Structure to design on (238 residues):
């Protein structure tokens, strides 16, 4: 049974819990950043990009030593611009050294290839910084899959639990709200996107023990979401 009367033209995808396993983000990426951020701050504090983020930390948390503030944010899994930007820089060094390779759920690349082939526009909206998004999709076990995506949105459009952020994405792209399908594991993000008029689907991955909400269509994988929304899945595109 289809969940919609209007077939989406754009798929806007979350990362953690939707395209990349929560375990990869929390057990590989976050610990890697926690280990390497002190060295980045010690060695590259005068790099203009790092310096700009340190200034932003000082503005948000006056008087708190920057590494202490970053640790507080990491402990709280806070989605804050300077933390996300600096994590992205550290991850970039990790991918470059071959110490990080990104894991995606196995259904992601085949399904996105099928959607792209069918003419869908694909885009990412994650709390991870735009450079970090390009890094994760640029260094997957399946190679560089960034060419699948037309747009990468991060916290610069606003937080993912605020409807205004999705309106900002619509304004920036000219997409019609009803043409866009937002896929995420987090119900508060789906509530905000739905409030802005987007179609939404919760991705509930059994391996991540995601809890299904009551108000939005639910799928365990991207091919399952494809069936709900009248999109091609891997098999029908082959
Ligand atoms: C770019 S991968 C790391 C994602 C990240 O830093 C994060 O906080 C998870 O955010 P998402 O919006 O993808 O759930
Ligand atoms: Mg998520």
């Amino acid at each position: 049974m289809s969940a919609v009367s209007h077939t989406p033209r754009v798929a806007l995808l979350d990362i953690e819990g939707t395209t990349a396993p929560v375990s990869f983000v929390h057990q590989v990426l976050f610990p890697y950043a926690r280990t390497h951020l002190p060295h980045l701050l010690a060695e590259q504090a005068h790099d203009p990009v790092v310096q700009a983020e340190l200034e932003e930390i000082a503005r948000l948390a006056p008087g708190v030593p920057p590494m202490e503030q970053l640790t507080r944010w990491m402990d709280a899994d806070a989605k804050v611009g300077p933390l996300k930007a600096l994590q992205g820089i550290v991850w970039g060094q990790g991918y470059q050294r071959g110490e990080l390779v990104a894991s995606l759920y196995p259904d992601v690349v085949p399904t996105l290839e099928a959607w792209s082939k069918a003419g869908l526009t694909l885009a990412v909206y994650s709390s991870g910084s735009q450079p970090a998004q390009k890094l994760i999709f640029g260094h997957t076990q399946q190679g560089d899959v960034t060419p699948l995506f037309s747009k990468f949105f991060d916290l610069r459009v606003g937080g993912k639990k605020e409807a205004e952020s999705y309106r900002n994405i619509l304004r920036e792209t000219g997409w019609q709200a009803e043409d866009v399908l937002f896929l995420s594991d987090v119900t508060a993000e789906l509530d905000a996107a739905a409030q802005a008029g987007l179609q939404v689907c919760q991705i509930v991955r059994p391996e991540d023990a995601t809890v299904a909400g009551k108000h939005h269509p639910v799928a365990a994988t991207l091919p399952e979401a494809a069936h709900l929304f009248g999109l091609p899945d891997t098999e029908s595109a082959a």
